[in-house]
Amino acid sequence: MAEDNADDWWRNAVVYEVYPRSFNDANGDGEGDFRGIIDKLDYLHDLGVDALWLTPFYPSPLADGGYDVADYCGVDPRFGTLQQFANLVAGAHERGIRVIIDIVPNHTSDKHPWFTKALHSAPGSKERNRYIFHVGRGEHGEQPPTNWLSNFGGSAWEPCGDGWYYLHSFAKEQPDLNWDNPQVRQDFLDILRFWCERGVDGFRIDVSHGLVKDLKEPLRDRPDPTLMSPQAADGSDPVWDRDGVHEVYRQWRELLDRYSPVKYAVGESWTPFTPRVYQYARQDELGSIFDFSLQKAAWDRDDYRKIIERTSECATAAGSAPVWVLGNHDVPRLASRIGLPKGTDVEHWVTSNGTDPGIDPAQAERRARADALLMLGLPGTAFIYQGDELGLPEDLDLQPADLQDPIWERSGHRFKGRDGCRVPLPWNSDSVSFGFSQSGHPWLPQPAWYARYAVSNQERLPGSMLNLYRAAIAARRRWIRPGDEAEWLADGEYAEYGLGWRVSSGLEVLVNFSSDHAIRLPENATVMLNSRPEITDCANNQVPPETAVWYFRGTLASRSKENR
Ligand code: TEU
Which residues form the Glycosyl hydrolase family 13 catalytic domain (predicted)? Predict the structure, then answer.
């Protein structure tokens, strides 16, 4: 690993999200596992990523895909063992790839011994005080204590049968921990230390804005309980984004900074954008925070410009770097979302885990390719969700019997949930389960059209999405530096259809958002990367619609000399 930026490696890193259950199955049980990931480390190395983020692999009943953790210091046998985890970390490090793991501090599984003990202990006991238990309202406690709702639908309070309830902001199998309890704080410091000592390089913090609740009596209702994020960006919501949570992360940062190199952390706060969210990115706290704005945006030049500007400003003001996310395991895949017809409410479509409102596949693919060059051309940290490098579309065909996400049941079958982006990856178009599993029975069925997207096919095609990602990541490593800032190219040049920016190496990125206008590049532009495989160079310096290019002014040879 490079020594020169050992603490700051993440500031321009490309991080690849692995959803272990769906990545690669080596033991043939239909679910991915650690050995499967180890077998693909060379693939990830060839892709060029700087780090892996593994979503939860801890022992879990999988009521929420592993975000219901029953033991924070173990490995679920379906994924492997602690020894295999060590092998995975060692194998990644040998290839210069860092490893980030997921920490889920807002809630545990209801099968965690902390919770089973709490349930069997008396109200007011120290066991119960690890969680948030409360008596119900009404004469006999027959109503929930407040109007708070679960993110997955229904009340956030589950009755225990004796007039008491426990709080769960997600599924009822995910009871919320009580972060007012010093024991809970201590336990998580121990958990972080446990994994730091096993060589992980950083952490992704689940629901980082949720931990601390206002538990002052009497408990307060939320003005609009259907919103699952803070209603006013001022810390006044009793559940989300409370000021008190920052004290937790300051303590964590003290611990993470004791290591050399220091450990990375990124917060996950699924909230509408407010500058307040960047408090998590302060350098004495987590240090960085995901920005999900592009995941909820329509393919629109002005919206993108606004987002890129405000995210870059806020991240820089916090001493951090922007963290770009185009896809993850919670939302319909980029390669479908980006093709939504004009006028679709993207945020609603994303959170209701869609049906097909008339996506034009060719257009969606063009835009997804341009979007990849856009994100990888921006300074900051870029997160890629497994399969997005293949341009995999969302699987909108899953049938009710296939669905496993708790959202499906908890929403009373109104929302299908997030399984469509979690379908196991296609590695080989000619093998059973497309090379994912010898079992022939992947835990979610793969559609027949997955064959076209298989790695084996894309490796052979110079213009494939996979090869575009590889080329862009390699070029980014060379031309985008930690601490770079995007300098907008004068609007006049690209007028109303495009966005263009320059970074310190002189690399310029141009994205043409229009679906019918070409944009002219400067006369002396040398194009280095082009998102359209069928167009080998930009004839007459014209960048066609829905296309992105990376170029330099002058010749590439002169640049290479300067940068040596
Ligand atoms: O997600 C947090 C979260 O708020 C999401 O549930 C989001 O609201 C939803 O997916 C949008 O459609 C994290 C994890 O990424 C997610 O997989 C878990 O289910 C959730 O926390 C609970 O741990």
Answer: 17-422
Confidence band of 1 (pLDDT split at 50, 70, 90):
very low
- Residue 242 binned pLDDT confidence (cut-offs 50, 70, 90): very high
17 CB near ligand 1 (under 6 Å): no
What letter represents residue 224's amino acid? Answer: D
Ligand 1 atom closest to the Cα of residue 353 is: 12
- Give the strand pairing for 498-502 and 487-488: antiparallel
Which atom belonging to ligand 1 lies closest to the Cα atom of 67? Answer: 23
Say whether the peptide bond before residue 261 is cis (omega within 30 degrees of 0). yes
Instruction: Tell me if 20 sits within 8 A of 34, measured CB to CB.
Output: yes
- Picking from 5-9, 119-123, 385-389, 557-561, which range would have the lowest pLDDT averaged per residue? 557-561
Burial 155-180 (b: 16+ CB within 10 A, else e): bbbbbbeeebbbbbbbbbbbbbbbbe
Q: How many CB atoms lie within 10 A of CB 365?
A: 18
Probe target for ligand 1 pocket from 64, 170, 240, with the most ligand atoms within 8 Å of CB: 170
**DSSP secondary structure code for residue 533 in this structure:** T
3-state helix, strand, coil in the chain (%, to 5): 35, 15, 55
Regarding the beta carbon of 207 and ligand 1, being less than 6 Å apart is answered yes
Q: Do domains 113-167 and 486-562 have the same CATH topology?
A: no
For ligand 1, whether the C-beta of 85 sits within 6 Å is no
Catalytic positions, please?
Answer: 206, 268
- Asked whether residue 3 carries a pLDDT value surpassing 50, the answer given is no
Structure token digits, residue 44: 């990830």
Could you tell me which CATH number the domain at 486-562 has? 2.60.40.1180
For residue range 348-381, list pLDDT tens digits in order: 999 887 789 999 999 999 999 999 999 999 999 9
Domain residue extents for the chain: 9-104+291-467, 113-167, 486-562
Q: Which amino acid is at 166?
A: Y
Overall CATH class of domain 113-167: alpha beta
Tens of pLDDT, residue by residue over 498-534, are: 999 999 999 999 999 999 999 999 889 999 999 997 7
64 close to ligand 1 (CB < 6 Angstrom): yes
Alpha carbon distance 167, 156 (integer Å): 6
> pLDDT averaged over the chain?
94
Q: Please answer whether residues 353 and 420 qualify as being in contact, where contact means their C-beta atoms are separated by less than 8 angstroms.
A: yes
Class of domain 9-104+291-467 (CATH, top level): alpha beta
